[in-house]
């Protein structure tokens, strides 16, 4: 592994990856990153599964970089009306439009004809 691979892997590691935690039939937990096929870890508690997933994620990224495999971007998550990436603040709502003034009615020029 090169220093460049490590730097790239660390940069990718910091991205806001989605995480899912699932209970398994044996009473343990499975944590996975849905965007990254095969990137999952287990544990006896949700916290342990997430800690283990951090180790697996870093290794998954390094192996993918070394093999030239494509690494997708974190997926967008729908938080109500706006789309944003996880761990990112929602954008401010748009400003309310100013009321439009209605033009005052004008009378047609009514000069008497000669």
Can you walk me through this structure?
By secondary structure, the protein is of the alpha+beta class. The protein has a single domain (3-84), classed as 2-Layer Sandwich (Double Stranded RNA Binding Domain), CATH 3.30.160. It contains 2 helices and 5 strands. The protein has helices at residues 3-13, 46-67, and strands at 20-23, 29-32, 40-43, 77-79, 82-84. Strands 1-2-3 form a 3-stranded antiparallel sheet. A two-stranded antiparallel ribbon has the order 4-5.
Describe the structure using short key phrases.
single chain, 114 residues, Double Stranded RNA Binding Domain, three-stranded antiparallel sheet, two-stranded antiparallel ribbon
Percent helix, as a range, is: 25-40%
Largest sheet: 3 strands, antiparallel
Number of helices: 2
Strand content: 15-25%
CATH class: Alpha Beta
Straight-line N-to-C gap: 100 Å
Q: What's the number of structural domains?
A: 1
Order of strands in the sheet with the most strands?
1-2-3
CATH architecture: 2-Layer Sandwich
Nearest-angstrom radius of gyration?
Answer: 28 Å
Low-confidence stretches: 78-88
Q: What is the arithmetic mean of pLDDT?
A: 80
Total E-strand runs: 5
Task: Please write the string of helix (H) and strand (E) elements.
Answer: HEEEHEE
The coarse overall form would be elongated
CATH topology: Double Stranded RNA Binding Domain
Structural class: alpha+beta
């Amino acid at each position: 592994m090169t220093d460049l691979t490590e730097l790239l892997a660390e940069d990718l590691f910091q991205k806001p990856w989605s995480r899912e935690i699932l209970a398994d039939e044996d009473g343990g937990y499975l944590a996975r990153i849905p965007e990254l096929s095969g990137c999952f870890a287990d544990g006896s508690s949700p916290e342990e599964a997430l800690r283990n997933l951090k180790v697996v994620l870093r290794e998954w990224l390094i192996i993918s970089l070394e093999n030239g495999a494509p690494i997708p971007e974190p997926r967008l998550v729908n938080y109500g009306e706006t789309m944003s990436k996880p761990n990112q603040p929602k954008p401010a709502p748009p400003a309310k439009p100013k009321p439009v003034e209605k033009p005052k009615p004008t009378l047609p020029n009514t000069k008497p004809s000669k």
